[in-house]
Amino acid sequence: MTRIINRQPGRYGRLVLGLMPFVILLAVYIVASDARLAENPSDKLLPSLSSFVDAITRMGFEPSKRTGEYLMWNDTLASLHRLCMGVGISALIGLAIGVGNGMIPFMRSPLSPLVTALSLIPPMAILPILFITFGLGELSKVVLIVIGICPIIIRDIQLRTDSLPNEQLIKAQTLGGNSWQIIARVVLPQTLPRLIEAVRLTLGSAWLFLIAAEAIAATEGLGYRIFLLRRYLAMDVILPYVFWITLLAFSMDWSLKRLSILAFPWYHKEQGGRHE
Amino acid sequence: MLKAIRPFTRVIALSATLLATAFTSQAVQAQEQTEFKLAWTIYVGWMPWDYGAASGIVDKWADKYGIKIEVVQVNDYVESINQFTAGQFDATVMTNMDALTIPAASGVDSTALIVGDFSNGNDGVVLKGDKTLKDIKGQQVNLVELSVSHYLLARALESVNMTERDVKVVNTSDADLVAAFTTAGVTSVTTWNPLLSEITAMPSTSKVFDSSMIPGEIIDLLVVNTDTLSANPKLGKALTGAWYEILATMSGSDDAAIKAKSFMAEASGTDLKGYEAQLASTKMFYAPSDAVAFTQSKDLTATMKKVSEFSFEHGLLGDGAPDAGFIGIETPAGVYGDAANVKLRFTSEYMEMAAKGQL
Prior knowledge:
Structural class of chain A: mainly alpha
CATH superfamily of the largest domain in chain B: Periplasmic binding protein-like II
CATH class of the largest domain in chain B: Alpha Beta
Largest interface: A-B, 48 and 48 residues
Number of strands of chain B: 14
Helix content of chain B: 40-55%
Oligomer: heterodimer
Radius of gyration of chain A: 24 Å
CATH architecture of the largest domain in chain B: 3-Layer(aba) Sandwich
Low-confidence stretches of chain A: none
Helix content of chain A: over 70%
Largest sheet of chain B: 9 strands, mixed
Number of strands of chain A: 1
Distance between the termini of chain A: 27 Å
Order of helices and strands of chain A: HHHHHHHHEHHH
Strand content of chain B: 15-25%
CATH architecture of the largest domain in chain A: Orthogonal Bundle
Order of helices and strands of chain B: HEHHEHEHEEEHEHEHEEHHHHEHHEEEH
Number of domains of chain A: 2
Number of helices of chain B: 15
Low-confidence stretches of chain B: none
Number of domains of chain B: 2
Strand content of chain A: under 5%
CATH topology of the largest domain in chain B: D-Maltodextrin-Binding Protein, domain 2
Radius of gyration of chain B: 22 Å
């Protein structure tokens, strides 16, 4: 008897099964939207697919009537700039403090409890303090992302450093390596793929903090636009923006994964190929 | 393989259809009903609804007409209007501009049943330091974009021959405006009460423009879905009757008035003195005859024309709008804009009944 856990869908089966939920969601949307629009043609809640196309054309490919800018690209660039700054700074700090905490006991003793405590503060709760300290400009938006994800990256890198086999470190010492050499040549290369993984896992939160920061005070950005248009229910722009954000986040995640596979093939071999 | 998943697809397709029907059946169906929902949000001119619900006045009037009215507080103002537009509420409080740009622009025919008050100093432009309005040139102004604050700023700039190009508007959430004002980068804000009084109470600020300089343009309304109202005139009568009874209670100077106002003050996070200060910068129409006169006046049409033009320039009327008059606005004095596409109506019918004591 074939057990369900051993039955595998074929190549096409996998494709069909993977696409099916999306097709169903789309169908549900179209049916619901048609029904609402039949009743009220200017309903804004569930716009038709053609009004999405119109909105994307207007936001992305026609200069704005008021400022002459291409709004969607402007928003995208502004948001990506903030996001990359926040994530990049977090990754650098995370790597430096994480490896330090893992390797240097005199650094770990004062810093580790602090990082743990900091990672437990919900960043949204200290927003007003952030504003007063860093102002409402770009800085506070980047700082919100850093405060939100940096402690998580630090803790993750610290765990990875901790879990390195002791034999390796002892071998490196018997070969005459000093602390700095051991960190740079033995520990760092092995934590880098883990850093990429940590960044991938925190990207979702980074987007969340970015959108939240832009919702509070901004003049451009993807989150800014969504919260601005929310004031008059312009779902024809909001939904494509959400889709666009998802697409951006997905492609960032995918590129990081490819980068990691290209740069650290040994790491991924170690991880095994299940569900690849 | 495909054969194996066929039964699944059928089940899923079926549930999808069911889901879709559930989704769409929320659309409003105009028919006679006996239960209604009214949404209110915190604002000096809307607190009476809270008192009306708590003191039983709303229930009393609902009973009189044999209906039920549930009064619901919504924390987020814009969300309450969106919910009204989606058909979740039969009546909701909002300003004249939001009534035009959210429900009316979404094709939901809406009627301003009660004109409660207009802002008479409740909204203002504040600069840091000892300044006049002209000093705003080149500054960044933090405000809730596309709200009545934005409209007020546009009108303020107009009064000194400037336009929005002379300043930089920064969208800032109202929840964070007061904290934002204390930071160094923020030099100018436009906002409403109680935030406004919080900000002007800080040292070295100048309120350079406020809504008392454009009286009667920022109007607070109780808006009802037009189809629901025409199918259920009882709802209009009960709401209007309850409203003027609440106002009559709070406008006196006896114990009942103080009790009512203290209740409203507490519910809006201030004390009696603070609430009375806010009332002072609000022109409440305590007497229904005043509201009737205001609604029937030609000035209302002129105001709605200005509001429509502002909304059109900022793209708030939707893509289909070729000009500011795309959405028709009906007032007792006449129709502004497209008479074939009237989506926002001001009526003095029920307020007149209240004035004549016919409710």
